[in-house]
Each structure stands twice: as structure tokens, then as C-alpha cells.
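Notes from hallway chat w/ T.B., transcribed later so I don't forget. T.B. wanted the structure written out for a chain they're using in a teaching module, and asked if we could keep both sequence and C-alpha cells in one place. Agreed to drop them here.
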Amino acid sequence: MNIEGLDYNTQREKLRLPQYGREIQAMVDYAVKLPEKADRQRSAAAIVDIMKRMVPQDKGNPSNEQKWWDHLALMSDFQLDIDWPFDISDAQRIKTKPEPMPYPMKAIPVRHYGNILFETFEKLKAMPEGKQRDELAGRAANQMKRNLALWSHGSASNEKVVSDLAQFTDGKIQLDHENFKFEKLDLRDIEQRPTPKKRKR
């Protein structure tokens, strides 16, 4: 539907820095076209002052001063001919998107224990017998029980934890489930997974 006098943002030119809105961009475009440099200089200073007022919590921070002028340079596509109070040659880096971080895709035997616990199992296998290994084994066992309770809707037997800990440490850690005291598990403190909604047919 086309209505005379109305247009939509989707039909307009894409904003270089959308956070400042179309009105500020229009001011910048106007300043670029001013024939006198003194007028462009005054307009640039006024625009930066308005940009500061849009983010008042940053206004009193001197370290942000460079940022405002860098943003003005980007919004003018570096076409604003003024005496810049800062070096704007590095402003383009603001718009450069960082490279995506690689997602760790480590294969682990069971997902409910998670990668951190499997790293702990490897550490336990390399540790000598003693108090430190016993303490780490106890912490690992309790975390395993919490994970089992979370992913098994509250069901986590001590025997299962002891068996899995022995298995994943290649038999190095053998807890006596009759004598080892697990931490008391309060199921009210465990966040239950939401039940997936069934699709309507």
C-alpha cells in the first residue's frame, strides 16, 4: 500500500550508526554540504554536543571525547571537511566486526556431566594419591550427582556416581559409596529443565 507523503525506514538509506537515529544523520549530511568551513566547524561541534546529551552517563568522561568525533567521522563517511580535534584515521575500526570465536566441539562420552567434569577426570588420573586428590575426587563426585539429578529429573544414585567416576578415571578413583558422604541434595534448589511442548497436529 502506497500512501503519498509517507515513507518507511525500509525504503530509506541505511543509517551508518543507527544508535544516533535518522535526525542526527540528517544533521551530519547537512553539515557536510555547508560551503563555509567555519559553518561546518560550528555544526560539527553542535552535533557532537547533541550526541553527548543522548548518552548523559558518558558525557563527563574525558576518555569518551575521541569516541564522539570518531562517530561523527563515520556518520559523515569521512567527507566532513573540518579541523578535527582528534586523529580520526583509526575510526573505521569501530565498525569492524570481530572474528567469530570458535565453539569448542570436544567429544565427551556423556553430555550430562559436561566438559569441565571430564577435564577434572583427566586431572584426577594424573594426580598422585593423597589428600588433594581425595578432595578433588569428592568435589567431582558431588558435582556429578548434582548433574545427574538435574538431567534425570531428580534421580541420582550414589552407586551410579561411584561407578561412573571409576570408569571415567580409568579405575584410578574408587570411592566407597557406603562410607563416602555425599552432600545433601536439595531438589528444590535444582533447576528443572522445562518440559518440551508437544506440537499440535
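Follow-up for T.B.: The CA atoms of residues 165 and 171 lie 8 Å apart. Might be a good example for the class.
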